[in-house]
Amino acid sequence: MGKHNEFGKLGEQIATDYLIEQGYTITYRNYRYLKAEIDIVALKGIDLAVIEVKSRSTILLVTLQKPLRLKRNS
Where do the structural domains in the chain lie, given as residue ranges? Predict the structure, then answer.
């Protein structure tokens, strides 16, 4: 496995650990459907989080954006 792949896996593990600390249950990792892949699918109560992890090798502080809320039709 190339160094960039190992670095990406490390980023995904850090994200997974953070989500678990925040009370999420990890449902899937590296979920594949046809040609698409989702890095992490997690649940917290009735909230479903679908996460694409982007790992960077430089020191950069980024403010997390508010999660996208989907309307429910009921």
Answer: 1-74
Each residue of 6-45: pLDDT tens digit?
Answer: 777 788 888 899 899 989 999 999 889 898 888 999 999 9
The CATH number given to 1-74 is: 3.40.1350.10
Q: Is 38:53 a contact under the CB 8 Å cutoff? A: no
* Contact (Cβ atoms closer than 8 angstroms) between residue 43 and residue 27: yes
pTM value is 0.67
The DSSP 8-state label assigned to residue 9 in this structure reads H
Other C-beta atoms lying within 10 Å of the C-beta of residue 39 = 19
